[in-house]
# Entry
Amino acid sequence: MSQGSSNVSSETGAAVRRSILDGVVFAYLAFTLLAILGLEESELVNRVPQFAMMFLGLSIVGGVVSLALNAKGIKTLGWQIYAPPHLRMKSAEELATPIYKSFWGVQTIVLVAVTTAVGIKTTEIDIFKLLEVDRFNHAMRLFAQLFAPDWSILPKAIVKVVETIYIAFIATVIAVPIAFVLSFLMARNIMGGSKIGFAVYAILRTVFNISRSIEPVLWAIIFSIWASFGPFAGMLALLVHSVASLAKQYSEIVEGIEDGPVEGIESTGASRLQVVWFAVVPQVVLPYISYTVYRWDTNVRMATILGLVGGGGIGAMLMEYFGQAMWPQVGCIIFVIASVVWLMDAFSSHIRAAIK
Amino acid sequence: MSEPILSIRNLVKTYPNGTQALKDVSFDVKRGEFLVIIGLSGSGKSTLLRCVNRLHHPTSGQIIYRPKEGSESDIAQAEGAEILKIRRKMGMIFQHFNLIPRHSVMDNVLYGALGSTPTVKSVMGLFSDEDEKRALDYLRLVGIEDKAYFRAAQLSGGQQQRVAIARALTQAPDVLLADEPVASLDPATCHVVMDYLRKVNQELGLTIVCNLHFLSLVRQYATRVVALKGGKLVYEGSPSEINDSWFAQIYGEGAKEVHIN
# Structure
């Protein structure tokens, strides 16, 4: 009975979602056609509101078309993505039809082909540019200088790269306990029991999804103004990003634990906190360590980039020489960075293999 | 005749997805008996046990619990901290043992004392000397004290289930609930575990409620039997009275009895 009503609501939801998807695909293809017919970028920029309305209108048309097609039994791309599981059984005829002859197959192929064509135009791909004699010779001179590194700045580069490793390490070390606590609050299986729990879960998920979608480079710009240029700003930027990433990765591990031990500990009359500590934590410790080591490794690479925008360490030094076009010095710094990244990568994969 | 330790009255459990696991089930559990619940997979046996220790919450009905003569409470009505207290009094063992595989056997047995240990103390690993002594005693009772400092994962299935029994005993329970305790063990090991359950029942006088699906084990170990079919109670009586017609009613026409030797 309730099974039946939930099927109906899932079918309605799926129909809405697939119509939106098919509608947007339709509007996108129609618009791309317009662009190919010769709309200049300036024209597009000047008339964004009108085009937005047009896009919306075309989407609605496409959505209606999608509804009509699906009602006739012609399955669209939206159907393929959003159909509820109980409708997914395919008829023998459908299984026998090759994908490129089905409606959704053609729809997908057109979509990918059109996007590729527009992408090539937008990227201004021009192979011949690379082969112009002047440009080519210029690039070759630059390479020649990069590959003749000025080793006199090696000591300074080593000191700076060590600074970078420490920045990354401290960001990781501070992020771990914060992410550890957050991971349980961000796991559905731990928090889903009560309404308050679920609210905490939903809020934290949203906040950290947003902060994770802000690139560390942007955080570094913010912190280099707030905390002035230097390693501290770089560390703060890495910290924010690390907490968000680790909390997400950790919480996914928590969501994947086995229920048996949890039930076993619950059956002894243990409190909620005891259940987490004795049944959940033992299952997640090893994967946590593995992710943490990998995070440190990633942070070393990121810290280098952050240095370019004011985060201190080897990146800042690279920026200094790069700005003055001192290529032999840049070559030396690139060599040091590459060596350290390679070493960190080897080291972290060894540790992760050892604790499996 | 003393009062039953548990009286289950009109128990109903409907899951959020609409499945009716228990439909108006009523029966008594007598003090000190070895009660076996039989029935097919999906008949509601596991749900019933989990309602008694409130791992699951009954939809309606009563579970009257009498820890001592003359005192009684309704488990089905318990809330919050009361639920944890009830779980302490209902030890439970599971088909898949549900130990913490990376922790030592001794630690796993001590976790039976979690309910009576303050959270902060337990997290720091500070269990009382008395609890540790009891844990060791029960490990001895189930015959694996020599494995106390092995990781639980290093033990065989039968040994792990004995650790689980010791953990449940460390809770100092009034009733031991066993959910298919031998269903994932081989036939030989299965008798070892059932023998330990009988030992616990007879030597410690602990009341046992055990889900099983092999009738041959039921005849050998049960002092009384109830049968569930499709969430309803269809039989209550002595194991020796289950004849062919009862068997067909519980397991369906055409089912054949399989023996474990």
Q: What stands out?
A: Residues 272-308 of chain A form the longest helix (37 residues). Chain A has a mean pLDDT of 87. Residues 148-354 of chain A form a domain with the MetI-like fold fold (CATH 1.10.3720.10).
